[in-house]
Amino acid sequence: MSNLTKPRERRSRAIQLAAGKQQIMRLRDVEAITTLARSTIYRLLRLEQFPRPIRLGARASGWRSADIERWLTERHSSSGAKKSEDLSKQGGPQ
Prior knowledge:
Elements (H helix, E strand, L loop, with lengths): L6 H13 L4 E2 L1 H8 L3 H9 L7 E2 L5 E4 H25 L5
Antiparallel strand pairs: 1-3, 2-3
């Protein structure tokens, strides 16, 4: 089976990694769990808006699952707060 036919398996594995103990996630896992493209991840890194990876070796790096979980939680909570503020400014539901 080629890598092109396994996106659900990668996402499932990434979710299992994030839900378990502290683990190291590779780029494909991070892409799957965040649903961000590689270019977006690197753009956010450049803007210091995404967790920094750790070096695993001379040519390998990965992200701590806890860092990715924290980033997702912060992003989710800040987007909810912003939406609430926007709605209250517009006189929307409160």
